Amino acid sequence: EAASIVIQFNENFLGDTFLSMPEALAIKNLLHKAQMGLEIHGQTREQVTHMMQEILHLSGMDKLLDFLSILNILSTSEEYDTLSNQGSVGINAEDSVRINTIYEYVMKNFKNPISIGEVSKLVYMCPATFCRYFKKRTRKTFIYFVNEIRIGQACKLLIEKDLSIAEIGFASGYNNISYFNRQFKTIKKLTPQAFKHEYLDQKRQ
User: Fold this and answer.
1) Which residue has the higher pLDDT, 202 or 132?
2) Which of 159, 158, 127, 131 is nearest to 145 (CA)?
3) For the CA atoms of the chain, what is the radius of gyration?
């Protein structure tokens, strides 16, 4: 079955000056190229996949150091293809600001109801134009993106907290448990219960 691991972070997660350091130049370039989408392959893909699986079992400084190692490996590898070019998707500085504004808003508000009308106003677009814009830039609908963020939070709670499925769904922004279960299975290809059992099985190995 298909599975995915999502690591979400802001560019300034280590402070505003980190990416300005000479030692971080390669990572800064990586993040710039990643705006166009990157497909990693070869030995780099195998190595990073393993490290991302391992990072789920880490916490604190160990998790941060492993994440920096992943960025370092990706930034020095040539085993990747860009999924698009700037001409085809129109990625530019203005787009980056808009996408970051949308992302930050969703990250701060995903536990609450989010309407397309609210978000479209943040980037000075009407709802219909915003939906087309977001789909063109990210290759996913805005609703699917919000669900990805919420399900990512649910996965974190399933791993870290001893809560009922209903409590986890509510804490992740879902007021309807059936809808939560459907979205979880759509995105993770597993039910919440199966996801937790799979994680616990892997931890025992």
Assistant:
1) 132
2) 131
3) 18
